[in-house]
Design a protein that fits this description.
The protein is built from 4 helices and no strands. The protein is an all-alpha fold. Helix 1 crosses helix 3. The chain starts with 10 loop residues before the first helix and ends in an 8-residue tail after the last helix. The mean pLDDT is 76.
């Protein structure tokens, strides 16, 4: 029985898979089957991004939301993306 050669995925492919997983329109298993990768691999790619997302959405010690902080520290005419 021969093994499949080890594959190296490009950063663009990983980003595409991670965004698809975060959108949660399909399960990790469905996405993994669709793109021919192991579900655990998708979970590994998603985990650090999800952690950073959670950190961005935390409230500051003053109780202000990130949107409030953004608007109070930016010049007029700039809006969050």
């Amino acid at each position: 029985m021969s093994r499949r050669p080890r594959r190296n995925h490009a950063a663009a492919f990983k980003a595409k898979m991670t965004l698809a997983a975060i959108k949660s329109e399909k399960t990790l298993a469905e996405l993994a089957e669709q793109f021919d990768i192991h579900p655990n691999q998708m979970a590994q790619w998603k985990k650090p991004v999800a952690r950073r997302r959670r950190g961005c959405l935390r409230r500051s010690p003053t109780g202000a939301s990130p949107a409030d902080t953004w608007s109070s520290t930016t010049p007029p005419g700039h809006t969050p993306a």
